[in-house]
Amino acid sequence: MAEPAGESQGHKKKKKHKDSGDGGHGGSDAPMVHDESNWLVSYADMMTLLFGFFVLMFAFSRIDQTKFTIVRKELAKHFGGKVKDNPAAKKAKDEIERILEGTGLKSTVALIEKDGEIELRFQGNVLFKSGTAEVLPASLDVLGRMINVIRERLTVDHITVEGHTDDEPIYSTQFPSNWELSAARASRVVREFEEAGFASADLKAEGFGSSRPIQPNRDATGKPMPQNQEMNRRVLVRIGFVDKLQDAVKALQDQQFDMMDDRKDLDVDTGQKPPTFDEIQGQQMDSARQRLSLARERLKDAEKKIQQVDRLEDVEKQASTIEKQAREAEIKAYKLEKELQKKVRDSKPGAPPKGGDAPRRKRKPRGK
Fold first, then answer.
1. Do residues 234 and 302 share a domain?
2. CATH classification of the domain holding 162
3. How many alpha carbons lie under 13 Å from residue 128 in its C-beta half-sphere?
4. Which distant-in-sequence residues (6+ apart) come within 8 Å of 363 by Cβ?
5. Judgement on whether residues 237 and 315 belong to the same structural domain of the protein
6. CA distance 344 to 338
7. CB distance 207 to 182 below 8 Å
8. Predicted TM-score of the model (pTM)
9. What is the pLDDT tens value at each position of the chain, 368 positions in all?
10. Both 127 and 205 in a single domain?
11. What is the DSSP string of 113-154?
């Protein structure tokens, strides 16, 4: 049966009054209390993002050029590209240009940097006379200086020397053709590098004769062109340098693999214990003692060398003093000898007086 309308409305009012009297915890119609501290969550989130943003900005503002170049090379290699610049080649070019500026060979020696290598092109008769394979003395001095700079300041990967000639035939017992002449010249230059201390495995000599001219040796009528022939008579020295960045990448990769292997070994071998603090400190102390002993030995060697230099300087000073005294004694002896010769001449009977000639004899008159 349906309840009366009045009773139903009264029952609802009592129920609503009962729900509101419970403090608003159990009823679904309880008003929601607004917490004024909720803005702190959004504020803290924004401050965290700003902090991370400025940390990234600070990190990007201090770029390690070496690491950046390594990453750039690796990315280019990964995506099929190639980075051809080599800092060692550029450094070598600058050093060799500095040497050539002080000589008269800068106009006759072309210096080119390409594909991470440098190419030295000696034109005409800069290194050799016509028909010979012996380096000229003036050019040999410049070549030796360049080789010393390359050996002391740079890391060389390979050196290739090419000999080229013009098409003028050569007839001699030593060089039957231009092939032997070009190969001998290239070998002569390679020998200078080997004598300077370069490994023979990194050196290569090639003779091409007149097979690879830069310009045509003759015109259309077959007449020789002297200027082009002089350009074709050349010696090329190609020097490739070690890319230290690539070596650094390999070293980092090897180090990472070694660390991973060490971790695996530690995980597998449960009996192995990590070194204690005392053991690490003892190893560091032993290493420091070894370095100290080496430093003391080097100091003793340096002191000995300094003493030898001082003794050598004293000997040189004494030698110069003795030489000076010998010169003075020689001059005095020469003067005394002159005076003695003069006195001997003056003491002889019938000697001419000073400043005059000897008396002439009177001629007897001839008889008629």
1. no
2. 3.30.1330.60
3. 21
4. none
5. no
6. 10
7. yes
8. 0.46
9. 444 444 444 444 445 444 444 444 445 555 666 666 778 888 889 999 999 999 888 877 666 655 666 676 677 777 776 655 667 677 778 878 887 777 767 777 888 887 667 888 988 788 888 888 888 888 888 888 888 888 876 778 889 999 999 888 888 888 999 999 999 999 999 999 999 888 888 899 999 998 999 999 999 888 989 888 888 899 999 888 765 555 555 555 556 556 555 555 544 444 556 677 677 777 878 888 888 888 888 888 888 888 888 888 888 888 888 888 888 888 888 888 888 888 888 776 655 555 555 555 555 555 54
10. yes
11. EETTEEEEEEETTSSB-TT--SB-HHHHHHHHHHHHHHHHH-
Burial class from Cβ neighbours inside 10 Å (0-12, 13-18, 19+) for residue 314 reads exposed
The two structure tokens encoding residue 71: 């990453």
Distance (Å, whole) CA 156 – CA 159: 8
Number of domains in the chain: 2
- N residues, the chain: 368
Assess contact for 241 and 92: CB atoms under 8 A.
yes
**What is residue 348's DSSP assignment?**
S
In 196-276, alpha helices (H): 226-232, 244-268
> Is 98 part of a structural domain of the chain?
yes
Q: Which domain holds residue 298?
A: 288-321
Residue 167, SS3? coil
Contacts of 183 (CB under 8 A, 6+ apart): 163, 205, 206, 207
Cα separations in angstroms, 86 against 76, 89, 114, 236, 244: 15, 5, 9, 20, 9
Q: Is the Cα torsion angle 138, 141, 144, 145 positive or negative in sign?
A: negative
Helix (H, G, I), strand (E, B) or coil at 358: coil
Q: How far is CA 342 from CA 336, 339, 350, in A?
A: 10, 5, 14
Any domain includes 283: no
Look at residue 15 and tell me if it is in a domain.
no
Q: Tell me, rounded to whole angstroms, the distance of Cα 109 from its chain centroid.
A: 21
**105 shares a domain with 196:** yes
| CA angle (15, 17, 21) in 5-degree steps | 115
**Would you say residue 206 lies in a domain?**
yes
